[in-house]
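#dry-run=false #mode=assembly
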Amino acid sequence: MSLKEALARGEFIVTSEVGPPKGIDIAEMMQAARMMKNRVHALNVTDNQAAVMRLSTIAACIHLKQAGFDPVLQVTGRDRNRIGIQSDLLGAASFGVTTVLALTGDHTVVGDHKEAKPVFDLDSVQILETVAALNSGTDLMGNELHGTPDFFAGAVVTPDANPIRPQLAKFDKKVRAGAQYFQTQAVYNAETFLGFMEHARCRGAKVLAGIVVLRSAGMARFMNKNIPGIAVPPELIRELENSANPEQTGIEIAARFIRETREYCDGVHIMAVGADHLVPLVLDAAGIGEVG
Amino acid sequence: MIVMRLKPIAEIREMVSRHRRVLLVGCNTCAAVSLAGGETEVETLVQTLRLASAQFGPATEFSGGMLQRQCEPEFVEKLDLEGFDAVLSLGCGAGVAFLSENEGIPIYPALDTLFIGAAKGLGSWQAECSACGKCVLGETAGICPTTRCAKGIMNGPCGGVKDGRCELGDRDCAWVQIYDRLEAQGRGDQFDGLGDTKDNSVNSMTCEWDMNPQAGGSK
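#status=ok
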């Protein structure tokens, strides 16, 4: 079942993500995907994540599609202008890859090709508008398409952004631009998240809470310091610090968050960040079984 | 003004190493005000290059001079290059290019041209304009998203904002500033209307601007 169908049926959604390799050996990526088989509705495929050059997202999505997954094609504006983005979207749709996630993309200077020209011809909102145009049977300039795609497009939001108001104003723009679902940046404070959900619910948006499984107090502190929009509360850091088995504690923290918030959102998006084996463990601990 | 910065001395020396008599030409408008190509900077660079040249040889002679503006015919006409086989321009890219167009000898840039900007304080400038040919400052509270946002995006802050700062760490987030200033000016409602895709064709198609084509070109 696709993400679109599962959301329409009101199921509690589980998504995760895989990163294409730097190179052409996809064995590890497919292995990570198989580990999550029957546990997730869809798998995001990152688009040269953190501006680090990797195998093409579309190619990786096609591999996953052929292996029976619903891949979520992440589309950023960093590396392609509006011609490239539309062309790639049509190419993906021709392979049946139609679940997409629109992002602006990390800046080239934070990646491994710092000297590359950053494109950013379209931002996340404009990519959503582009998808809407293609779905309506025309390109961005109003030229008619020969064969119309049927994309299911989502976007991202940061509930813990500081400051929050411009972030929410942009979230509203994404809703108006046709985002059918949202994945959030990792959230740890259920209260903050539920506050955000009130805002999202007023706009009729479907939201998957972002989960990054903490593996140590050091990791939590590192993310607080370096990752925009992530705020791990001090009491969770203490809990990890005092734990004899921080990885297990991290799993419990994630599971607890899911239990506390699942009534208020539409699902979770679990970002494994290099520890894919933790995804099924978190789901087990949260009492979420196989997906239909 | 156009803001410029001196290139590394080693790079400048390498550029002119094949020449015997090099004239350093300052530019008394933007370059002088941005403390990169005024009289003092020309004199300092002449002395520096003389020292560097004596140290590394073969000897090149360096002299200095000034133009009011390197980008206008009436000033460039006054340049006397008799006896020189190269020029090191302490002007912006336009100055280097315009001198090259009008003189028969090689013109080299001693400066890197950084941006169109404004003075923040003494010896400190910030980029304000990218000369895109399609100004939106009226809608963005006077803060240019093309210039001040590292990604030049048009719809509001990206996910890289951290405590109001850009993910690149070298500036405040332009979109948070735009949002705040629109609010402060009582026009916060305009934020939602921003976000048109940029018409890049204006920039691509504007390599000249001639108010009066009948009068002839720059030469």
